[in-house]
Amino acid sequence: MKLVFILPLLLLSAGAFAQQQKADSTANAVAAKTVKEDFRDDWADLHHYAAENKALAPAAASEKRVVFLGSSIFEFWKTRMPEYFNNKAYIDRGISGQISPQLLIRFRQDVIDLKPKAVIILAGSNDLAGTTGHVSIESIMNNVKSMAELAKTNHIKIILCQYLPISEYSWRKELKPADKIIALNKAIKNYGNENGFTVLDYFSPLVDSRNGQRAELTIDGVHPNAAGYKIMAKVTDEAIAKTLK
Questions:
Q1: Please, which residues have CB within 8 angstroms of residue 210's CB and are 6 or more apart in sequence?
Q2: 227 Cβ neighbours under 8 A, 6+ residues apart
Q3: Which among 217, 195, 194 is positioned nearest to 204, based on CA atoms?
Q4: Domains delineated in the chain
Q5: Where would I find the SGNH hydrolase-type esterase domain in this sequence (predicted)?
Q6: Which of 67, 89, 207, 210 has the most CB atoms around its CB within 10 Å?
Q7: pLDDT tens digit string along 104-155?
């Protein structure tokens, strides 16, 4: 008689246990999907453009693809003057806040692997702004030179940018970057001329009497507005045409 009562209880217990296991499994799967991936080891933010790079069609033999490698100046260009990158072989790979060693780490993924005809390298301002550590003109130039050498080895033409004028960083008002920007630009120009690279001057068309950006061309003294980007577009197109002729 006891077995008659025990058997149904065992069956009920087994069923409840199976349902609980199924519920736990489902909950774990949902939790796994909602856990945010940890990118703390990706200091150079390689994942930033990984999906876009993967989706990018291979460059056609006749395509004059140009990669724009830099920080916020280039990244914001896409939003403040998006038409500049429409229906052209111009690929923007700017990431806000990046310093020159981060650009160097990204160079293979975000430049070489995209098979461009030319690369435009804009680097140095965030280094000088003291975003991280203590930086010298020499250390910035070492990273720029390494990027240029990588490009040259991979048959990519090089356009080096003289940086935009900046007299003050809104987030670090104690710094006086104008003279350092000028010194960096001189080093970039000398290196570019010595090696036969195109030097793209973003400084001269935007500068005011204080060696900062003209007020009507900037939103904060560091980043251009739409009018500033329009001027940059003109000199950039001229530099690209000269480089790829």
A1: 167, 178
A2: 216, 217
A3: 217
A4: 66-244 (3.40.50.1110)
A5: 77-231
A6: 67
A7: 999 999 999 999 999 999 999 999 987 655 789 999 999 999 999 999 999 9
